[in-house]
Amino acid sequence: MKIPTMEFWEAGIAAGIAAGVAAGGFAYASRWPASQIFGRALTAPRNPRNETAQIALTFDDGPHPRSTPLLLETLARHKVHATFFLLGKYAAAQRPLVTQIHQAGHLIGNHTWSHPQLAFANSERTRQELSRTNAELEQIVGAPVRFFRPPFGSRRPATLRIARELGLTPVLWNAMTADWDATLPAQISPHLAKSVLSNQSRGYASNIVLHDGSHRTLGADRSASVAAAGQLIEQFSATHKFVTLDAWARNP
């Protein structure tokens, strides 16, 4: 039996390191919101010079039969408009609620039909998820849907290419915390407020992600996220301007 040489082991170690680096690079490019390696996506622009700093409140995984109406009441009370990235399967089951979101003046975006990991979905599946959701949402609201957020931020080059072919602007974020695991707004709003101030110190607007629904079930409790949204509005309404993502569409 031939004993492997030191060169053999070194080559194997080098190959393992290279594979690890490649895997890490893919994870960064496909999941990290700041990464533009796989293509450009709208995150948040620089704040306009000599103007009020901006915040976009965005909500994923709805519509939710209980949390979304409560959120709409909160936003109406504060006269703030937000962006809702809706799941097609939930929108199809709750058409009047989608109409309510739209008629309240909020922006509606595409969050796929079933919330898959698009970094590992083939092109046919990706196109189906996006086009089916767009068709459903546009039929309900009678207006074009122009923004798309990939679930988990998960993407590959084909994901963003297909989105743009369908007329969709891919959207990520620069302020998020694990609100889906929170039971109290105090577990959410301080972390997001810190991100807003950090973004502002670097000269950037803030694109905040919260969740008014859950891709796993319609029964999820999102009351903490709704309350946190109200707290953030109260904290920043005197110093920041709340916008929907179409205000930034030309300046990603």
Order of helices and strands: HEHEHHEHEHEEHEHE
Structural domains: how many: 1
**What percent of residues adopt helix (DSSP H or I)?**
40-55%
Mean pLDDT over the residues: 90
Tell me the overall shape. Answer: globular
CATH topology label:
TIM Barrel
The count of DSSP E runs of length 2 or more, i.e. the number of strands, is 8
Quick rundown:
The protein is of the alpha/beta class and 252 residues long.
Annotation keywords:
two-stranded parallel sheet; 252 residues; alpha/beta; 8 helices; 13% strand; six-stranded parallel sheet; TIM Barrel; globular
Explain this structure:
The chain is an alpha/beta fold and 252 residues long. It has a single domain (53-247), classed as TIM Barrel (Alpha-Beta Barrel), CATH 3.20.20.370. The chain has 8 helices and 8 strands. The protein has helices at 6-31, 67-78, 88-93, 95-103, 123-141, 157-165, 189-201, 223-236; strands spanning 53-62, 83-86, 107-110, 147-148, 169-170, 175-176, 206-211, 240-243. Strands 1, 2, 3, 6, 7 and 8 form a 6-stranded parallel β-sheet that branches. A two-stranded parallel ribbon has the order 4-5. The radius of gyration is 20 Å and the shape is globular. The model is unreliable at 8-23 (pLDDT under 50).
List the helices and strands and how they pair.
Layout: H1 6-31, E1 53-62, H2 67-78, E2 83-86, H3 88-93, H4 95-103, E3 107-110, H5 123-141, E4 147-148, H6 157-165, E5 169-170, E6 175-176, H7 189-201, E7 206-211, H8 223-236, E8 240-243
Parallel strand pairs: 1-2, 1-7, 1-8, 2-3, 4-5, 6-7
Helix pairs in contact: 2-8, 5-6
